Amino acid sequence: NNQRLFVARDITQLHRTNRIRSDFVANVSHELKTPITVLRSYLETMSGQQELCPPTWKNGLQQMLDHVKRMQNVVEDLLTLSKLEQSNHVEERKPVVVSAMITDIHRLAKNLEDHSEHIFVLEIDTNLEILGSTNELFSCFSNLVFNAIHYTEARGVIEINWYRDESGAHFSVTDNGQGIPAEKIPRLTERFYRVDRARTRALGGTGLGLAVVNHVLTRHDATLYIESEVGVGSTFRCDFPLESMSNNQPDSANDRTA
After folding, report:
1. 220-255 pLDDT, tens per residue?
2. Do residues 125 and 235 lie in contact, with contact meaning Cβ atoms separated by under 8 Å?
3. Full-prediction pTM beyond 0.85?
């Protein structure tokens, strides 16, 4: 009754261990980057000279090339994560023209191999800008869009929205793909966590994309909201606080592009 318990715990060793782990991952990823790049270059050269390649080698070369590409993506994502973990905040925030960024991502998405049949619906506030890092936000938003493409069947609909309300600015990606079981949603931002391991690997995924998204949003004082239903689709929304929005932005009707 009206008593309090104060508990103090020294986490110096835990902090040091986490720092060692982070440095180790960064160093190993950096060391792997060069040999993987060399391997990929030679494999692409050999695969491109089919007339000089024995028929029995072709399948093996293609499999090696596919796995090298996936490993290269893993290394790049690990290096990105290590860089993001150096700080919890973006030190120098500049106005980011998100509408132009979304246009670029949309163009890249339409050019993805074997994913040209998706239907995109864009609703973008062209006057809405936020303060942050252009490169980090591009990585964050593109990850969400490309994930939607990979997990939505051909002719599926993907909606990309960029809008503001009384709580702040919001970027959302909604698809009518396969959806995610509710019990797996809390773990989606964990490193290397995959809802469907076989499908993710077949698509060349690294299992690090949403971890990158989560770190970028943390550095921008933003949060990730996920809503999904199996067989119906998913919505991934990035919520930015009012303080993130650039000042003196005129209100205007959203430009809609389909």
Report:
1. 999 999 999 998 899 999 999 999 988 655 554 444
2. no
3. no
